[in-house]
């Protein structure tokens, strides 16, 4: 679980491992990892929360006249990258929360916001919101100028044994690098699509897991580059191929007990789990805007590639939005299959947790689980079962988000407005872009 690391531990590590620079990382509204790097001579300032930066140029942060921000590092996130800088010295990393100059947590920081929502969860008597992310990605070839292409380094499929290709070598290198900085990697394998990979690391509390998925993405990109490849977490990078999902496994704990487990109930789900599940389903359309935040995300949420399209749940069936995997007491969980790895993990978990807590408070049971393949049903049959579709575009998801006051409250006023502004701009730019498909289709008219 979360490591206990003190300031003295970090000072000792910097000295023993020849750490020359300290990278202070934080996340913007779009889930992009940002960083300030300082030399080790500034270590005391780092440890005393005294490193400042200009937040006015960071998406979703602040206006120019209120730009000064301070980074508060979370010591438990300390790690030393296994590669060095040009001088041979190493780089130490800390994940930070962003604060204002008067020391208050900045409301526009997605990490602070998740901590706020976790605090609301604890007021209900729960001690932990445990998360396991499964973030898929593609490895692509580079051209002679070092730019990405859509050419893949392999044509393997799900769980294929490809011990000699560059993808497998890169994947193993990623695993070894993750383990060297404290990740517990549980599995690594080839996914369904050409060049598509998955590496799963151990579940942990929500904040720790959100921090780790940001570090994970950084490590994957860096190791891929060292193998002469390009790694992308884009939801649908290759037409006609499976897209990249970020299945989100969720469970609530009270002390050491999993509040989602009840051995006497069907599927071993407690009433708490079922109420939580209903909250997720009730707010699914707005959650989709947060969990699938790009125009491209909706080219993954289509029939035929195992990605969900409908708001529903099941125990074994993989076509609905939420699945209940077979598991023992500790691992009983809800697996939300709709989100993709372009999502900001802090915002996604804040939205899911808030929806689930609302469900627990309302004490409403979810719809019946699905036992058939939803893609085989007609629209009339789906309507009869009360099953509605997920949004089909970012525009539609954003409309649902604007109507859902609970999910807006999950992000808070600052982040909600920043999110809407960012996504409306993205949609506007997309609608004004003329694609090659359109030229090929309509140029002869």
UniProtKB/TrEMBL annotation:
L-glutamate binds at residues 300, 306, 318, 337. Mg(2+) binds at residues 134, 136, 191, 198, 247, 335. One of its GO terms (cellular component) is cytoplasm. The keyword Disulfide bond does not apply. Its cofactor is Mg(2+). Its EC number is 6.3.1.2. Belongs to the glutamine synthetase family. This is Glutamine synthetase.
